[in-house]
Specification:
The chain is mainly β and 101 residues long. The chain has one domain: Immunoglobulins (Immunoglobulin-like). The protein is elongated and about 75 Å long. The relative contact order is 0.33. InterPro entries: Cell_Adh-Cytoskel_Orgn, Ig-like_dom, Ig-like_dom_sf, Ig-like_fold, Ig_sub, Ig_sub2.
Length: 101
């Protein structure tokens, strides 16, 4: 009898936010948050999350970019980009959006 073992190589992703922290905005401004992944095998999935329970209904997600059109003061908070695959822990980066005085 012989036994064949297969090992799957993989790596957990790392991510980077291409924005300042915190982001200071005026109500009515459009805000775009850009998140990029490096590494990760298999290719990671990107998701956005908000400290306000869910993303604003008007928000748009395209690839790693989250766009918040005509932001309101209620939408200020912490926004997090999470990259995950089935290898290791997910990578997470966050930024805070605050209203200008």
């Amino acid at each position: 009898m012989s036994v064949v073992l297969c090992f799957l190589a993989g790596a957990s992703p790392s991510i980077k936010l291409l924005v300042e922290d915190p982001i200071v905005v005026n109500p009515g401004q459009t805000v775009s948050l850009v998140c990029i992944t490096t590494g990760g095998e298999p290719s990671p999935l990107l998701n956005w999350a908000s400290s306000n329970d869910s993303l604003p209904q008007r928000s748009l997600v395209k690839g790693g970019t989250l766009t918040l059109p005509a932001i309101t003061s209620d939408e200020a908070g912490v926004y997090s980009c999470v990259a995950s695959n089935n290898m290791g822990n997910p990578a997470k980066k966050s930024t805070t959006i605050v209203e200008a005085n």
